[in-house]
Amino acid sequence: MAGWGHSMRQVFTLWPTDRHAVPHRNLDHNGLPDWVSNPVPGDISTGWTRGDWLFLLIASLPVMALGGLIADDPHLTIATVLLCGLAIGLTAFAITTHRRQIAALQIEIDRAKRWNDTIFQRTGISLWREDWSHARDAVKQLLARGVRDMQSHFAANPDELREIRRGVIIKDVNDFAVMRAGATDKRHLLGSLDSLLPDTDQTFVQWLVAFANGDSFYRSETHITLPDGRQVDTLFTAGLPRNIREFEDILVSDLDITEYKATQARLAQAETDLARAVRVSTMGALTASIAHEVNSPLAAIISSSDAALRWLGRDAPDLPEAREAIANVLAAATRAKAVVEQTRALLSNEPLRILPQDIVGLAWDSIALIDRELRTYGVSTHVDAPDGLPPVMADRVNIQQVMVNLMMNAAQAMKDSTGKRDLTIMLAQDGDRLRVGVRDRGPGIPQERLQTVFQPFYSTREGGMGMGLAICKSCVEAHGGRIWASNVTGGGTEIRFDLPIAAAIP
């Protein structure tokens, strides 16, 4: 559907797939859409009902009885008048009652028409009334021939698709559609759909697919160029027919979602920028640990290089010892390179690289990354993980950021604790998910705030940005997981999240 003028271009895409928005399909026992066999509902009758005729028959009985009496006794003049009056009165009553029913029905029809006109003209969105009976007949014939894959059929027969589109008629549009299209008169938009949309095969064929599938509604997102050159994003929706006749008058709505899409894009970009800012902020706390991690292999490189030179500088060079020292240089350089790459990835805007990951190794690497900071807070770190845990599907740097943030939060929560400052990472399989928990022994979170800790700009500590847990939530949800918080009996907080197991991904 949906048209604005000869210069319109349309690119079909499904509206962002919401699993709850999958159209309900109505199919009969043969797998055909219900509308193929559904009877057309009968028209409302304004004629006399069976009850009306029965009432008149009863009313006519006195007249017939009167006729019999008159035949036997011509002197019953008074009785004749009374019976005739009664019969005429009853007949008049029946007619009057029927006319009142018709008048009441007409009032209801007029009221419904006014309400329909109000909805059609004043909804603030474009509405199109279209006759798809020609397309209905074509789809019905194809189904009768055993064609089920409409997409493939029309891809192989584009001329047939164009012929069907020419038969779809735009019967009426509301004023808002005329205004949005930039037309001066609705008549410019009426007529064959093909005259308005000569190049929308991909969009049009989706309607036929929906008809053949027995879908209860149609919805698609379309990018349109208006005749004046404006680019607009549009959402088209329509309730699809339940019987043969309803194809003659399908109401299609289109909603301009250009600003919505632009806002969503801006929000997504803002979230990306904010995530990067938080990563940079996090790196401030990691600087000492990173320096330590880099300095250690650099010191090993210097020491091993000096040893190799000494072994080679002897009058009789000790090649095995020199070779071992050079191997140590290579290993230390590799460790330093890994630290640099890990830091660079943490600060970059690179897209997620979802790969099978060893979650236990990932946990230990995360601990090593901030080990110096954790020791500064006096935190003892433990990893509780059973043997044989399966790998998870995750972006290593992304999930490492989550673990680092959660551990730093836990350490900061325990900084004023006078008891043991134990931080435990718990790993366990839960069906086709792997659950990760980070538990501390801090003061916990007030019960009424457990549901809000993942909201942006909410912080449980003074001076906190309130973005750490919000970013963690975004990272976990980007992996198809979920994250939640709970208090621990005896004191402390546990933040848990889950990730899909690699074996569970087809």
TrEMBL record:
Looking at the record, the residues that make up the Histidine kinase domain are 289-503
Q: Which Gene3D superfamilies match?
A: 1.10.287.130, Histidine kinase-like ATPase, C-terminal domain
For this protein, the Enzyme Commission number is 2.7.13.3
Which stretches are transmembrane? 53-70, 76-95
- List the catalysed reactions: ATP + protein L-histidine = ADP + protein N-phospho-L-histidine
Is rRNA processing among this UniProt entry's keywords?
no
GO MF: ATP binding; phosphorelay sensor kinase activity
Question: Do you know which InterPro entries this protein is assigned to?
Answer: HATPase_C_sf, HATPase_dom, His_kinase_dom, HisK_dim/P_dom, HisK_dim/P_sf, Sig_transdc_His_kin-like_C
Keywords of this protein's UniProt record, alphabetized?
Answer: ATP-binding, Kinase, Membrane, Nucleotide-binding, Phosphoprotein, Transferase, Transmembrane, Transmembrane helix, Two-component regulatory system
This chain's protein is named histidine kinase
**Database matches in CDD domains:** HisKA
Give the SMART domains listed for this entry. HATPase_c, HisKA
Provenance organism: Paracoccus aestuariivivens
